[in-house]
Amino acid sequence: MPSVTIKDVARVAQVSVATVSRALNGHGNVAEDVRNRVLAAAQELRYTPHAAARSLSSRRTQTLGVVLPDLHGEFFSELMRGIDQVARAKRLHLLVSSYHGNPDEQGAALRAMRGRVDGLLVLSPFAEIPTLLGEHLDPALPTVLINSQSGLDGTAVLRVDNHGGAVAMVEHLVECGHRRIAFIAGPADNFDAHERLRGYRDALARLLPGTPEWVVQGDFDEASGHRAGHELLGAAQRPDAVFAANDMMALGCLFAFAHEGVRVPAEIAVAGFDDIPLARYVHPALTTIRVNIAELGARAARLLISQIAGEAAAEPSTSPSGVLATELIVRESGGTRTPPPPSA
């Protein structure tokens, strides 16, 4: 069976080949009824534009590259959902690669994108961004860094207010009367983890001066949260509350406490960060800091598409539009305690 061509679509839609091309490429100078007729004809004939020919004629691949540290977990699933929604609305494809947290594999993934995509969305949590990315990113390729430390001239950065969110959580726990607040930190070389730890430390020093910080190392996964939970239970004096740098570690900690018969929040409160969908369905439901993860992905995709189109944009690394606000979500696991009476 001969392949369907753009001429076949034009014939069925009763328009010119040029009109079909404009309609399929999303140009605005096509009447809506004509566009709908073209799309209906293309669907009826199961027409697929020839990617190579389109690329040669427009110098565009109609594809966005997405390079992530991992594809496993609810955070990355939600992030991709937001990116995909924007891409689909613009009739763009996605080319996704994961480097499994390995800096060398990250470089290989970035190099593999060259010539295949019109722009890149990169989540690179490593602290040494210029060293790790500078030699692998094509400076001519529009790129948006997600939740990354700034450091590459001319590269847009869109990040979550990790520091502000962590401060808000410590403020809430202190207002609830908790005084011995332990923190389960994320990976030491992760920018998000660094900012959340900084927020915990800053808030603790301001709100409870003289109180020593209590930091247990984690790795942003359930297993490390579970280990941290057991470590905290083995302390001579247990904490009043545990604030984990992400929800996955908080859930692992909750499981460790449940296994040892510790009542949450009656004995120890637990809080997380991210508000992944699962956070509201565990028992007790998790107090956390909400990050609209899908919106983070969607905003990054919209920013990249604007760059590809040559539209001027404010410097997102320094303007308010480059920071995604967080929100305190109070649920059962955070508990409420009566603050101790003031000392005489």
TrEMBL record:
- Record-annotated HTH lacI-type domain positions: 4-58
Please give the superkingdom of this protein's source.
Answer: Bacteria
Q: Which Gene3D superfamilies match?
A: 3.40.50.2300, lambda repressor-like DNA-binding domains (1.10.260.40)
User: What residue spans carry the region label Disordered?
Assistant: 315-344
A Pfam entry, by short name: LacI
Q: Which UniProt keywords apply?
A: DNA-binding, Repressor, Transcription, Transcription regulation
Q: Does the keyword Amino-acid biosynthesis apply?
A: no
Q: Which PANTHER family match?
A: HTH-TYPE TRANSCRIPTIONAL REPRESSOR CYTR, LACI-RELATED TRANSCRIPTIONAL REPRESSOR
What name does this protein carry? LacI family transcriptional regulator
Native organism is Lysobacter auxotrophicus
